[in-house]
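I'd like us to work through together how a protein chain folds, taking it slowly. To get us started, please write out a protein record for me. Go ahead whenever you are ready, and we will take it from there:
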Amino acid sequence: MRPQRSLHMPALGEEFRSAREARGLTLSDVAEQIHIRSVYLNAIENEEWPSIGAPVYVRGFIRTYARFLGLDAETAVSRFNDTVPVERPGTHAPTPTVIERERSGPSVWAVVGGIVALLLVAFVGYEWWQFTQGSQERPVAAAPQGQPTAGPAAAQSPVPTAAPAKPTATPLVRHRLAIELTQRSWLRVNVDGKTQLEGIFPAGTSKTFSGEIADLRVGNAGGVRVSVNGAPPKTLGKDGDVVEQRYPL
């Protein structure tokens, strides 16, 4: 059922359609330029929100479409919010964006960087300890042939043999998921049940994540390439496709 129309303001979908037609553009023209499938653009203009999916995806598409048409993106999102039920705590409400997390406290990358630095220091210290232990256990070189030994005791004492080398501990390396954007796209990354990244990012964005299970959802699969554990990167789908994928690392 369509939302009630305001007597003083055109419906949100009609405002998008009017702005597009005023520029002489078709839905296909817009889809090609902003990389959102025309079926979703048509759903916005007809306010068929369930056809797009969860409200978080609708808001992302509305922002992108509004900015392209020169409309006020945040006002458009606010008007959309007035048409959907209030999301109660514990439901599938969108998690804070990357910008909001940076304002509220240390970023995820800062924490990860600190952990990597501590692991590196520990590994270097362990390698140095192994080196010093190996230096102390080096055997005494035998006297060259023809030279007298130090005495009877030296002749009777066997030349100490080198102690077997201790195996070097292999540092624990967690597998990686690398993401590269060739086009502007909305994406969300959950690693081991925690949201690491969410928002709309431009072409050229490159991110790497480490963990055991990675859940990835993108709004423009044709512009997202993914590499798992160093394998050659692969494009997730076609332009404008919304794709959700799980990667056991």
Summary: Confidence is low (pLDDT under 50) at residues 1-8, 89-105, 140-144, 147-155. The first strand starts at residue 176 and ends at 181.
